[in-house]
Amino acid sequence: MDRFSQIGFVQRINLEWLENIANMVALGNNEDSINIALQELLRNKVSIGGNAARGNRNIMISILKKIWLKVPPEFDSFHKRALDLLNQLSLDQHIILHWGMSIATYPFLSVVAENTGRLLRLQGSASASQVQRRLKEKYGERETVSRAVRRILRNFVQWGVLVDTADLGVYSPSNSLKITGEETISWLIEAVLHSTRNYRLPLKMAFETPMLFPFKLASIPSGTLANYGQIEVISHDLNNELITLKNEAHK
In the CATH hierarchy, which fold is given to the domain comprising 1-178? Predict the structure, then answer.
């Protein structure tokens, strides 16, 4: 089963933990030391007293490592640029990198984000039941889908991109984070392409995708996108440009 068919992201993952592993990877720590550090970090927070191989704590650690450490070969350039940006962006902007790495690694999460963002645009709020219904249409009527959606939406609240409303299970958007840096915008658009099964989208759609609902991206020319990373611009015509990932990015 490929990553586009899997759910995978089935646990609550705090932003603090993503920040922790990203910094360890950026500093060059090896997997063994990262495992030890994450076990210690989560010991008194998750599966307290438990050491089961597939306990919640170890599943969470597996998710964290998949996002920031054990990335697939086609993510090598994308991942390296994320680590470079980690040192360039302010701490409050690191959510951009955690979001991009998460949607690229776990397309299921990107579909949750896309449907949440679409509902927010249409009605100003999104309920867990509405998002669950849309995800079940794509992934099937499984309790695993409902549970994963609930946890991901709670992650979005903890990450600061959604806000609880007075109605249980209904969320409103937080303030959008403006992104103006060309390299950061290019990297985030590349994340969107990695989360898309055929690795290509119309340029306008990539910039306006509800998947990026927490952010407001400055408009930059398509040629500028091609100056960074693995994005390739395929011009159908001036009003309908298509962007894709270069072949070596998705072999």
Answer: 1.10.3540
